Amino acid sequence: MRRLLVLGLMALPLLVSGCSKGPAEAALKAADEAIAKAAPLAEKFVPDQFKTLTDAAAAAKSSFDKGDYAAALAAAKDLPAKAGEILAAAGAKKDELTGLWNGLAESLPAQLAGVTEKITAIAALKRLPKGIDAAGLETAKAELAEITGTWTRATEAFGTGEIPSALQAANDVKARVEALVKTLEPVVLPPAKK
Fold first, then answer.
1. Crossing angle for the helix pair 79-124 and 163-184, to the nearest 10 degrees
2. What is the pTM for the complete model shown?
3. Which of these, 90, 106, 121, 134, is most buried using a 10 Å CB contact count?
4. Is the distance from CB of 119 to CB of 137 less than 8 angstroms?
5. pLDDT tens, 134-165?
6. Which residues contact 108 (CB under 8 A, 6 or more apart)?
């Protein structure tokens, strides 16, 4: 009798771990599905939060692989809700960055056109006006070409959904256009002939 009791007590942990394997497996599956759903937006817009989530999922899987189903279940059960929160945060960040982009996309083309017009007018003159020399004009032309190329790449990136990198490039364009405008500020064009 005593022998049966000892065997029964030894088998109890195996039964308990076997009983919790199914729920842990289901929790891990639900977590994986929620993380996969959040991944496209979260990786782009809240990468740090997404990494924390995937690290937590990896820890839960590690516990499961070691046979610690109770720990795996405890770690995995909250992951779908956290994935949902991170997805919502990513959506909010996307909206915020899109708003910033739209503001720049509205103002930068006009600024670029103004600088282009001034550089074109300076280059068309037979004699360079006070405030700029030939080397300065060539530098301004080269900078304008680079700025225009960066703006084109930023617009393309935004078009493909790469909003964070598009916004970063647009901010670079804004800073460079403002610097170029400041450089050309002292150059006074002669009045247009009627």
1. 30
2. 0.75
3. 90
4. yes
5. 999 999 999 999 999 999 999 999 999 999 99
6. 151, 170, 173, 174, 177
